[in-house]
Design a protein that fits this description.
This protein has 6 helices and 8 strands, in the order E-E-H-H-H-E-E-E-H-E-H-E-E-H. By secondary structure, the chain is α+β, with helices and mostly antiparallel strands. It has a single domain, classed as 3-Layer(aba) Sandwich (Aminopeptidase). An 8-stranded mixed β-sheet has the order 1-2-3-4-5-6-8-7, with helices on both faces. Helix 1 packs across helix 3.
């Protein structure tokens, strides 16, 4: 368990699978995470078991209740690089700073405990809230992947971003 100012990150447990399924099928989460089809409980179980084998998955808790997911995957140990994913699944927890709090805890874990040198991610270019969040935590835009998703019949770019330990630490002094 890792504690932040307003959140706790803890390992995912099978008892969390129904909530994760509900979150991932929440229309706004589904849309921004660029999922392609609804998730069954079996999909969630398989995905979470794979995430536990291949990375560092966590549930985000705020005020003692689970509200979302965050984690690292695609870890390239020889290079000190991993990919990040994050979503707040409970609509009543949106816009309250829990995403940034969870991101700061996870990045501290990534850099200080795992010894990573770079954490990367992608988000849709039209996800302005996510872009602001990641920039606040020190992420910089590395580039754009053109027309990577179809949204309401129109192509949308993906923005690729990354942050180093030094950039993250500098952002904490904001």
């Amino acid at each position: 368990m890792f504690h932040g100012e307003s959140v706790v990150l803890r390992r995912v447990e099978p008892a969390d699978y129904p909530a994760i399924q509900r979150w991932q099928n929440e229309p706004d989460v589904f849309r921004w995470m660029d999922y392609e089809r609804p998730f069954s409980l079996a999909d969630i179980a398989a995905g979470e078991e794979r995430a536990a084998r291949e990375g560092h998955p966590f549930v985000i808790e705020a005020a003692g209740r689970p509200i979302g997911r965050i984690g690292l995957n695609q870890i390239r140990e020889p290079h000190g690089v991993a990919s990040l994913y994050l979503f707040i699944g409970e609509p009543d927890a949106w816009g309250k700073g829990f995403g940034l709090a969870a991101l700061e805890v996870l990045l501290s874990y990534a850099f200080e405990h795992l010894g990573l040198r770079l954490v990367q991610l992608w988000t849709r270019a039209d996800n302005e809230r996510a872009l602001r969040l990641y920039k606040t935590a020190g992420f910089r835009e590395d580039g754009r992947l053109r027309d990577r998703s179809m949204v309401e019949g129109r192509p949308t770019d993906h923005v690729v971003m990354s942050v180093t330990h030094e950039e993250f630490e500098a952002s904490r002094g904001r």
